[in-house]
Amino acid sequence: MRYKITIEYDGTNYKGWQSQDGLPTVQGAIESAVFAFCQEKTEVYGSGRTDAGVHALGMTAHMDIQKETDTETIKMALNAHLREEAIVILSVEKTADEFHARFDAKQRYYLYRILNRATPPALDVDRVWWVPQKLDIEKMRAGAKHLIGQHDFSSFRAAECQAQSPIRTVDEITFEKQGNEIWMRCQARSFLHHQIRNFIGSLVEVGRGKEEPIWIKEILEKKDRTTAGPTAPACGLYFEKVEY
Predict the structure, then answer these.
(1) Distance of CA 77 to CAs 32, 35, 87, 100, 229, Å?
(2) 142: exposed, middle or buried (C-beta count within 10 Å: 0-12, 13-18, 19+)?
């Protein structure tokens, strides 16, 4: 039976989603919990591959297990075996045998949190990017408009990105104030490695007043990663949800 699972996790102490020998990963921890529950070795396929330090509010994955049981039992058992981890299974659903968490995804949503105040975080260490300089959110919005649509995003992809093409379509980028925080949400069917963190790194340069919004368009047109701003820290990024 194939199951679709929704997962919440704090990525601070994990080397990302994808299993790596000898290293703590989210996928590895869940697969170990599945084995502890039903003594079956199965691969848990995620809808995305978050980097080290990136969090998730609603990562979706699928897995196949043979044990005859119900979804509530699976959820409770996996959470029991994950109690020493910063990972929680929010829901478990039976799904079609042909369902694939990664390849069937139609839209992915990410959230980036910036703490924009003079004093550093006490409660949200490793969960926000602290930027003490005052940011102009309207300039950041204006810069982000140049990133909407289908483009060659070579200027915003990591050097180690393994995607065959730098062409992606970004459907929406929004900014909102949440108290002392600025939240950027970004949605697209798929993203390049570090694409959102590179967006934020450059947009914060605009928000600080170091560059004008048109600079984002100029970066995009140059198709050269060295012309863009720094890569924002992983700690502020959250995989929010996925639509199928």
Answers:
(1) 12, 11, 13, 23, 44
(2) middle
Domain range 107-243, CATH architecture? 2-Layer Sandwich (3.30)
Determine whether 152 is an active site residue. Answer: no
| pTM beyond cutoff 0.85 | yes
CB count, 10 Å around CB of 30?
Answer: 27
Contacts of 107 (CB under 8 A, 6+ apart): 171, 187, 188, 189, 242, 243
Of the candidates 10, 51, 70, 126, the residue annotated as catalytic is 51
- What is the C-alpha separation between 2 and 243, in angstroms, rounded? 18
Determine the CATH number of domain 2-95.
3.30.70.580
Strand blocks (E) in 65-207: 87-95, 107-115, 129-130, 149-152, 167-178, 181-188
Q: Count of CB atoms within 10 A of residue 176's CB? A: 11
Residue-wise pLDDT for 178-226, tens only, equals 999 999 999 999 999 999 999 999 999 999 999 999 999 999 999 999 9
